[in-house]
Design goal:
- This protein is α/β, with parallel strands linked by helices.
- The protein has one domain (2-192): Alpha-Beta Complex (Maf protein), CATH 3.90.950.10.
- The protein has 5 helices and 7 strands.
- The chain has helices at 11-22, 47-62, 96-106, 173-179, 181-192, and strands at residues 2-6, 26-30, 66-75, 116-126, 133-143, 159-161, 166-167.
- GO terms for molecular function: dITP diphosphatase activity; ITP diphosphatase activity; metal ion binding; nucleotide binding; ribonucleoside triphosphate phosphatase activity; XTP diphosphatase activity.
- It catalyses: dITP + H2O = dIMP + diphosphate + H(+); ITP + H2O = IMP + diphosphate + H(+); XTP + H2O = XMP + diphosphate + H(+).
- Keywords: Hydrolase, Magnesium, Metal-binding, Nucleotide metabolism, Nucleotide-binding.
- Pfam families: Ham1p_like.
Amino acid sequence: MKRIVIATKNKGKVREFQELFQEKGFEVISLFDLPNAPDIAETGSTFKENAMLKAEGISSQINELVIADDSGLSVDYLGGKPGVFSARYAGEEKNDQKNLEKVLLEMNGVKQEQRTARFHCALALAIPNQQTIVVEGVCEGIITTEPIGEHGFGYDPIFFVKEKNKTMAQLTQMEKNKISHRANALALLEKELQSETIL
């Protein structure tokens, strides 16, 4: 069975990638399964740069297929913030609850028509001895005034998706996998790989 390494220790992301890749016949492992994998600093100024840094850095060390994503929330009213700092927006220690609370505080009193935002995902697939493939996907939405829903992770409870009339956190995993920024990026990745032999 072909194996692909998901370069993350975010359990929510691991679960989403497992569902999307296992049906394609891949054995999916993550950094949880590779305790000696190098820790790659995300020093890029864009989602794309960070995804490439992670995928290529780990792939060069273990000589395996590695997929890395860098994703986050961009709020128009906040000038694109939290952006690449989405995971640590409220402080150096990752805390989903504090992050979304900070966004809600900064958006306090802002009218609905000014609350537009999008989830952005850059995916980089590092293939040993080949050029890295990079794709980017987005999902448009509106920032709510309070958290709604129990599913998902990160900013999902405050991200309202118009076409579903629900927040990301109210969607089932199957529903989310059809419309999310990560799903959109993966669909683009599939197209890129039509001529490749690895999928």
